[in-house]
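Per-residue structure
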Amino acid sequence: MAGDDKKQDPTASEGVPDQANRVAPPERQYPEPKAELKRKVAAEPPTTGHVWDGIREYDNPMPRWWLWTFYICIAWAVIYWILYPAWPMVSQATPGLLGSSTRGDVAREIADFETRNEPWFERLNATPVAALREEDDLERFAVQAGAAVFAAQCSQCHGAGAQGVQAGGFPSLLDDQWLWGGTLEEIHHTIRHGVRNEDDPEARWSEMPAFGADGILDGDEIEQVVEYVLAMSGQSHDEDLAAMGAEVFEWNCAACHMDDGSGNTDLGAPALNNQIWQYGGDRDTIRHTIYYSRYGVMPAFAQRLREAEIRAVAVFVHQLGGGQ
């Protein structure tokens, strides 16, 4: 039958209306919260009128906490100006009501330490120089005081560790080779009067001739002496030139440096038969020394330091390991 071929509507059932007959729900009577928030646009803050690369500078008020911090800093600055030194004047800053002075504090501390150490300095002055290391407590004080003096007055030339500086001709104070002697008395005299300075008539004094610059030796003789000194100090050398240099050395150098090159502390002539050098011991440096000579100068510290300080630094240098 024709009616049997028709398909049944699945939605068609008893009591269920079809889609066309459905009733639409009523519209909402209040706005959607998120949508409402999106519609709320904050008012544009004022700007300063400055625009750079499309960026505008807003003219927002500063935070209250920042303003109060700024005001407190201003008040503190005014109080500081009144109480403490602040404004520079011609000769000094304004002293302030409290009269505070960092320089005065340092001066008082120095004076306090000077007062405490004065008995020890008096003992240093009263004790013979040769006996300064015989009393343990006095030696300990002298070493500590001398180390401070050395750091302030001597380390610029001899190095912070007293190792010397060959580039400047400043000798090491750690070995047992001394230009003018390594006893306490000799070290004390050298520090007190200096070497080859024109300020102290008792300064150590010696002068090596400039054998090449003054024409005392010709070029060949200088080369021979250079090789002989290299041989004497145990370095690689030309044997033939060194053999000829022995006679040149005997006639021109041995009077100060001795026949065996052991040096002479009475004249400040260094030893040449070891590996300890004041200016360097390579071939070029030895040649330069012989040709032009050397003339190192040390100031007289008697004009810079108290006698007790000179004695203290003498003890400090003597105990470094090379004192005799």
Remarks:
- The first helix runs from residue 33 to 39.
- Residues 117-197+310-318 form a domain with the Cytochrome Bc1 Complex; Chain D, domain 2 fold (CATH 1.10.760.10).
- The chain has a mean pLDDT of 89.
- DSSP finds eleven helices and two strands in the chain.
